[in-house]
Amino acid sequence: MKGWITGLCCVLAFFLFFSCGSEKKAEETAVDLPQIQERKELVVLTVNSSVSYFHYRGEPMGFQYELAQQFAKSLGLDLKVKVVKDEEQLVSSLLKGEGDLVAYNLIITNPLKDSLIYCGEEDITRQVIIQRRGKKALKDVTELVGKKVYVNSGKYRTRLENLNRELGGGIDICEISSDSVSSEDLITWVAEGRIDYTVATDEIARINRTYYPVLDINLAISFDQRSSWAVRKTSPLLAEAADKWHRENINSPEFRASARRYFELAKRPAHGAILSVKDGKISHYDDLFRRYAKEIGWDWRLLASLAYTESNFNPNVVSWAGAKGLMQLMPATARAMGVPPGKEQDPEESIKAAVKYIAGMQRTFSKITDKEEQAKFILAAYNSGIGHVTDAMALAEKYGRNRYIWEHHVAHFMLLKSNKEYYQDPVCKNGYARGSDTYEFVHEILARAELYRKKIKK
């Protein structure tokens, strides 16, 4: 009897301790705008994606990230970003008090309204068919019967299966292994004509259309879903501030500029020859390429090929991401390389700074002793940022390939950096990247440099 009473007391003590701990945790997570303003920092939770948050050329970017930046600035707060794995973890991390606000289009559901306050701009999302533009583009979901649609497993396949049942069958659903091909890879395949149809959310589709204008994204295959930012129930003042900021700023120049940057501006400007290679001249800046290429031991024609890909030899161009000048240096990189303020579009300053930047990367990749091989890694890092290349090197090593060889080794994993299973691997420190862009960037520059070498003497 005495033992039973002792055991009961232990159980009661355990629940009392657990209950007190829960109350204490609830108090700790009851953080609202005044407490956030006191610590002078807004902590936002998000996930890596081409829409929400990613690193490009060493700088944080993403539509939701930029909006969170603007919101934090309006409150006089610094912004701290915490990246989590997925939507489920966004909610759990928020409820644990690991962040103040979800800066991501979180699907609005009735069950979550018990613990969250949805706030900010309410966005409407839907799944759409990605196809090429033209007379043969499908206009109605019934036309999908008899067509092959390529998707990864998950929500896109589930929606297609439901649609197929609604139509009485006939859609040929082709599942692609998600560990080798991402949804964005499938969109690229559609643009290139390798497949005819795939599926994505309209938000992802709109971003990819800025890379591939040939895409038609008008055929919806799902009902509209509402989504928005979110905070805990214990943060009503923060929710009110987010609502007010979105209401007052949705038509502001800063908000519009961010929306235009991600959803409207072409990510791949058209290129055209300026001077005829047949005349023995690549550009108006050949003498500068010759002079500064010597400082890094590069063939000047490789440096010229890099400049052509970056700017089409136009020193006045500004990219969608804010890179400027002949060599398209990001603002932070230009400053770090000593470009004087206001001189970002001066051709010589741009080339000089790019060469200084490349020299630094030569030190970073010094273990790659073959200079031609090293140049491939440097070009990749110039395009996407050093962090994404070192991630791909780490993946190559983890999966038994050579971290110091580009083609078929590191390049293979750079191509997989848009796939969640790889960019969320513990060895990756820099998250999502459009690895296919980087792969093509390296290939195109090397091929053009070889053409220049054949046509133009040193």
TrEMBL record:
Transmembrane segments: none annotated. CDD domains: MLTF-like, PBP2_YfhD_N. It is a peripheral membrane protein. Residues 1-25 form the signal peptide. PROSITE patterns: PROKAR_LIPOPROTEIN (PS51257), TRANSGLYCOSYLASE (PS00922). One of its GO terms (cellular component) is cell outer membrane. Pfam families: SBP_bac_3, SLT. It is found in: Cell outer membrane. Its main location: membrane. GO terms for biological process: peptidoglycan metabolic process. SUPFAM superfamilies: Lysozyme-like, Periplasmic binding protein-like II. Keywords: Cell outer membrane, Membrane, Signal. Residues 41-266 form the Solute-binding protein family 3/N-terminal domain. InterPro entries: Lysozyme-like_dom_sf, Solute-binding_3/MltF_N, Transglyc_AS, Transglycosylase_SLT_dom_1. Belongs to the transglycosylase Slt family. This is Lytic transglycosylase F.
